[in-house]
Amino acid sequence: MAVLAVAQKAPDLMAQAEDKKHHGDFKGALGDYSQAIAQDPNSVKAYIGRATVLSLEGNNTAAIKDDTRALTLDPKNPIAYSNRGNARMMQGDLSGALTDYTEAIALDPHHVHAFINRGNVKNLQKQYGAALEDYSAAIALDPKSAVAFYDRAGAKRSLGDYEGARADYSEAIALNPVDVPAYIDRAVLEMVQKNWAAASADLDKCLSLLPPEKQAYPRIYLWVSAAKQGQAEKATTELARATAAGANSLAETWGWQIGQFLTGQMDEKAFLASASSAQAKKDKSQKAKAFYFVGLKRALAGDKIGAAKFFHQCLTSGNPTLHEYTLALEELKPSKT
After folding, report:
1. Angstrom distance (rounded) from CA 184 to CA 253
2. Distance between alpha carbon 183 and the CA centroid of its chain, in Å?
3. Which SS3 state, helix, strand or coil, does residue 261 take?
């Protein structure tokens, strides 16, 4: 007997789309959301769902269009505002994102993600105090949000509150013990305060969590820590070995170039040229990082004047969210001895 084909109803399509999205089948999810919209052109959830997948695929323009359509149908939907804020932030429209997050919070004062993401926008705008307030509001709503603690730590670090930042990084790690960025960030603060053993412990933890090709930055900071303690020779051998293994990987290309410079496999002129290349313009932080590491090597070689020049250049071209900015700032502080 022939089997009749039965068209799926919109609710079934929505559940199927959510399942496909959860498993990374974005193309299939988009098809199901679109079919659901075709069956019910007034389905707010379908527009929001499709917008989420479009944003995950990097098509933020289309995502904004779907979220806007959802808001036309339901002007008081905080999720649509929050999601549109995400897409706008990804497009660099910080003002539009800020407006959308604020509207989402007004409609739902318990919207944790909207507080965190609004804090992120303020952080990008270098409004660190205002960002800290939003992160704190998110933590008050969800004391187990590792993301909120991590982001608040960054704002505190940018404001110079290293003790507060370290405490927040520790809380983020307690909530998410595999949070590699939190270990690295906390290690940098330990380095600033010359807590070398604690810094090394955090960086070694990163090495245990990362595959070899992605270990560039933990190994770089282990080298910095060792060099500052007068133990550069052994650290250079270890970093050179890791750099030789990782340099051919597409992962962290710039990080391995830093490793090549620190271990003498790339000279200063070539290193600075690489930091100013056309490719580097996509990551404006590379110049600031290069200035710090050139300054550090000059300082270790006894060239205090040259080192200070490059540390100042790091501060001028970078921003307080960079590890190298924090480290350069510490280098320029008057010696206590």
Report:
1. 18
2. 13
3. helix
Cβ neighbors of 32 (< 8 A, separation 6 or more) are: 13, 14, 16, 17, 20
**Residue 276 burial (CB count, 10 A):** 13
Burial of 325: CB neighbours in 10 Å, binned 0-12, 13-18, 19+: buried
Span 20-30, mean pLDDT?
Answer: 89
| HSE value, Cβ hemisphere, 13 Å, CA-based, for 160 | 2
pLDDT tens per residue, range 122-153:
999 999 999 999 999 999 999 999 999 999 99
Query: For residue 235, how many C-alpha atoms fall within 13 Å in the half-sphere facing its CB?
Result: 18
Whether 81 contacts 107, CB under 8 Å: yes
Alpha helices in the chain (DSSP H): 10-22, 26-39, 44-56, 60-73, 78-90, 94-107, 112-124, 128-141, 146-158, 162-175, 180-192, 196-209, 216-228, 232-246, 253-262, 268-275, 285-300, 304-317, 323-331
9-16: long-range contacts (C-beta < 8 A, 24 or more apart)? 9/39, 10/36, 10/39, 10/40, 10/43, 10/46, 13/39, 13/46, 14/43, 14/45, 14/46, 14/49
CB 51 within 8 A of CB 63: yes
Question: What are the structure tokens assigned to 129, written together?
Answer: 């105090």
Distance CA 155, CA 146 (A): 15
CA distance 188 to 221: 8
pLDDT at position 14 is 86
State residue 252's pLDDT score.
59
What is the distance between the alpha carbons of residues 124 and 80, in angstroms, rounded to a whole number?
22
Burial state string for 8-17 with b = 16 or more CB within 10 A and e = fewer than 16: eebeebbebb
pLDDT higher than 90, residue 7: no
What pLDDT is stored for residue 280 in this prediction? 55
What pTM was estimated for this model as a whole? Answer: 0.89
